[in-house]
Amino acid sequence: MTAAAANRSHGLVGIAAILVLAALSIASLFVGVSALTPRQLLNDPEALRLLVESRLPRTLAAILAGGGLAIAGLVMQSLARNRFVEPTTAGTAQSAALGILVVTLLWPDASMMSKTIVASVTALAGTSIFLALAHRLPPTQPFLVPLFGLVYGGVVGAGVTFVAWQADLLQYIDVWTNGEFSGVLRGRYELLWIGAAMVALAWWVADRLTILSLGKSASIGLGLNYARMLQLGLVIVSAISALTVVVVGMIPFVGLIVPALVSRFAGDNLRATIPWVAGAGAALVLACDILGRLLRYPYEVPVGTVLGVVGALMFLGILFRRHDDG
Amino acid sequence: MRRLFIGLAASAFCALNAFAAEIDTALGPVTIDGRPETIAVYDIAAIDTLDRLGVQIDGVPDTLYLPQLSGLKDGAETVGTIFEPNLEALSALGPDLIIVGGRSSPAIEATRRVAPSIDMTMGGDDLLADARSRLAAYGALFAVEAEADEALRELDASVEAARKAVAGKGNALILMTSGPKISAYGVGSRFGWVHETLDLPPAVKSLDAANHGEAVSFEFVRDADPDWLIVLDRAAAIGSGEQNAKATLDNALVTETKAWKSGQVIYIPAADFYIAAGGVQAMGRVLAAITEAFSHSQ
C-alpha cells in the first residue's frame, strides 16, 4: 500500500468512525423507558424536556466517561511502558474507591466535589506506588507488569473490602464500584466534563507522552523533563479515574481494549491516536450502555456488567489475533 | 437437621424439667426440649419480636440497627454481626439455643457446632403469615403465650387499620434508593407483602419477582406514574450518612409523577422495613407509617 493509499483508507475509517459515534449518540437519545420519537420533539414540549433532563445527560455522560477512561488507559500504558495495564487493573480505580470510602466514613455529608478531590488524591498516591514498583520490574519480562498490576489492584481492592466490611458498608460500595448510568440526569454528571479537560490536556502534551513511553534514559536524552512529565501523566490518569468512579462507578476494560485496538492501525504516535482512542472509547461505552438499557427493558443492566462481558470477549479476541499475526 | 435432633435428644436426658415445645422454623418443625435459659439471637426481626415478648436475650450482634432496641446491648454479650457469628464469643457465652434468620441463616451449620440452632428466616410475599408463625413459636418456646397472643392481636389490628386506610386510594410503587441510584420492587419481591397483605394495587404489574428488586431509571418512575411512592432509603437503614432518599428523588422526572405532585411520597422507617422485616414491633411501625400517610389523603 502506498502512503497516499494508506492516508486515504485512514480517512475513510475516520469518516466511518465519526458516523458510528454519531449514530450511537442518536440511538442513545431515543432509547429509554419513556416513549420519545424525533417527531415528538418538534411539537411536544414535554418530549424536549425529557431529552434535556434525561437522555442528553446520559448520552454525554457515557461519551465523557468512555472517552476519558480510554485516554486514562492510554496514558497509563505510556507511563508504565506496558500495553496491558489500565486504571481498573492496576489499582487506580480501587485507590479512588478507597478514598471515597474514607470520606464516607469520616465526613459523610461531603459534597461530590470534595469526594472527587479526596478520591483523586488517593488515586494519585495509589498509582504512584504502582508505577514506582512497576519500574523496578525487569523490562525484558513485559507480562510481569500487568500481573503485578492485577495483584496490586487486588490488594488495594481487598483493603477497600476490609474497611467496608468493618464499617458494614460492604453492599454499599457496590454503588460506586459497579459502573452504572441509570442515575444520570441533568445536574448529576457534570463533573465528568473535568475529565474532558484532562483528555484535552493529554492531547496537548501528546508528543511528550510519546517520548515518555520510550523510557527514562531515552526521554531524558531527547530533552524531556522526565519527572515533570511523569507527574502530569499521573495527574491525568488519577483525575479521570477518580471522576469516573465518583460519578458513575468503575467501568472495566475500556482503557485496555481501546488503545490496543487503535494502535493496531494508527500506530503509537499519541498525537495521532488520542482522538481515535477517545472516540472509540466513547463509542464502546455508549454502545454497552444502550445494550444495558435494552437487554432487560424496562429494567437496567449496569454498564459495568455489560462491559465486563463484552470487554472480556474483545480482550480474548485481541490476544488470539495477536497470536495469529505473530 | 439430623445432627440437631441427635444433639437435642442427648440433652433431653439431662433436662431437669419435662418442658418440650414443637415449633415451626424456616427449615421445618423442630422439637425443643427444655425451656432455653440462655439464648443468642442473630436476626434483628427475631430480636425485635422477642423484645416485645419480654424474653431476655443474652447474646446479640454488634449492631442492632433499630434505635428502639439499643437498650438490649446492656446486659447482653456481643457475639458477632448479623452476617457472621463470632464463634469464640458464642462458645464463651454457652447458650442453650441460638436463633439465626435472614442474613445470618447461612451460618447455621457453624453455630450448630456450639449449641442447638434454629433458623427463623421470614419470607417476602407472605411476611405477615411468617411473622405470626414466629410469634406463636416464641410464645410456646419461652412460655410467654399470653404476651404472644396480645402481640398478635396488636399486629392484626395494625394490619386491619392499614388495609382500611389504603383501600380505594390508588396504586403504589415501592422504591429503594441507594445513594444516587434506585431500584423498584414488585409483588413477588421482599417488600411485596405490602401489596399482598394490604390489597394495595401495584403501579407496575409486570415487575418481576426479583427479591433484590430491579435497577431502574428515573424515567421508569416517571412512566409508571404511581399514585403513591413508598420509599426505602437504604443508606438510612444501614446507618450510613449518605445522600438521602429525598435528594435522590427530587429531580425533574420524579417530580412529574402524581405521587410527588400530591405529596403522596411515604418515607418508610428504613431499618424497620429493611433490616427487621417481620419483627412485630418493626412491622407495627411500618404499618402505622403507611396508615398515617394514607389516612391524610382524600
Largest sheet of chain A: none
Structural class of chain A, please? mainly alpha
H/E element sequence of chain B = HEEEHEEHEHEHHEEHEHEHHHEHH
Q: What is the helix/strand order of chain A?
A: HHHHHHHHHHHHHH
Principal-axes geometry of chain A comes out as globular
Strand order of the largest sheet of chain B: 10-9-8-11-12
Q: Helix/strand-derived class of chain B?
A: alpha/beta
Catalogue the unreliable spans of chain B: 12-16
Distance between the termini of chain B: 53 Å
* Oligomer classification: heterodimer
What does this structure look like?
- The complex is a heterodimer of chains A (326) and B (298).
- With 326 residues, chain A is mostly helical.
- Helices cover 75% and strands 0% of the residues of chain A.
- Chain A contains 14 helices and no strands.
- The longest helix of chain A is centred in the N-terminal third of the chain and has 36 residues, at 45-80.
- The two termini of chain A are 21 Å apart.
- The model of chain A has no long low-confidence stretch (mean pLDDT 89).
- In chain B, the strands form four sheets. In chain B, strands 10-9-8-11-12 form a five-stranded mixed beta sheet, with helices on both faces. In chain B, strands 3-6-7 form a three-stranded parallel beta sheet. A two-stranded antiparallel sheet of chain B has the order 1-2.
- Residues 12-16 of chain B have low confidence and may be disordered.
- The interface between A and B is medium-sized, with 30 and 29 residues.
